[in-house]
Amino acid sequence: MAAFVLDASATLACCFEDEASPFSDRLTARMESGEELVVPAHWPVEFLSALQQGLRRRRIDEAGMADSLQFFASFRITIEPPITVTELPALRALCRKHDLSPYDAVYLAMAMRLMLPLATSDGRLIAASNAEGVVLVS
Question: What is the pLDDT of residues 75-91, one digit of tens each?
């Protein structure tokens, strides 16, 4: 079965109505088809934090938050182990090379290491993926 790395921006594009797009529709269809989602160890908390922030900003209501949590709980998600301290210099190099946050660099590093496509809607991460030869989920 196919798999891809899913970042928080792509995740949230499937949760917030104001981010709905043909990309989020295609992504949802791929997830619903049973493709494996591969995420870093920080993804669950990053996802919940963004939903909570969306709730505070009234981008989503309590029912929408519950629906989003249930929606993603229904998929086959593999959570990769946390980054180790010894991996930080390489991660920092990716941050500097592509002007990425450490959180975003983890997604790029995972996609590179696992040789999997990356699903993102983040412009910097898209540019970095293209520069590193990482296939993007489109």
Answer: 999 999 999 999 999 99
